[in-house]
Design brief:
Length: about 150
């Protein structure tokens, strides 16, 4: 390969990788392919396009009960036999994973509280799992004990 062709090839590779790198998303191919990010509208649009092109079939969303998105949520996915197939920290409010069709348990933790959902992942299409946490002054206040009648 001549030097000019080599430079063109490297440039084409760099441009092909630009959408994910430009938005600071994480993409991992082993053992379960996944991509995470979604901070800002442009990044979410790029993620949706990537997920559709690559055939990701599970979408995990992290948000507060008022609707605002969260990042830095830890996600763990276990298959139907309880074997952990993915553990990741979300770089934004969305995480897409490409799993074999089947039943999975998805656990998400914001560092204070963990939540768990069971989901059937399809062979085609995308299943969405949404995790919501309570935030704000009312979430940090101690609760008064309920009186017993």
């Amino acid at each position: 390969m001549c030097p000019q062709s080599s430079r063109r090839f490297v440039l084409m590779l760099a441009l092909a990788a630009l959408p994910l790198a430009a938005f600071g998303q994480t993409q991992v191919d082993h053992p379960v392919p996944y991509v995470s990010g979604g901070v800002g509208l442009d990044e979410r649009e790029a993620l949706l396009q990537e997920a559709k092109q690559e055939g990701y079939n599970l979408k995990v969303v992290a948000a507060v009960s008022g609707g605002a998105y969260l990042a830095d949520v830890r996600v763990s996915i276990a298959d139907g036999q309880g074997k952990q197939v993915l553990e990741a920290a979300m770089d934004g409010p969305w995480l897409f994973a490409k799993l074999a069709p089947g039943r999975y348990t998805v656990t998400a933790s914001d560092g204070q509280q963990s939540q768990k959902r069971t989901v059937n992942v399809p062979a085609t299409g995308t299943r969405e799992v949404i995790f919501r946490w309570t935030r704000g002054p009312e979430a940090d206040l101690p609760r008064e004990p309920q009186s017993q009648p």
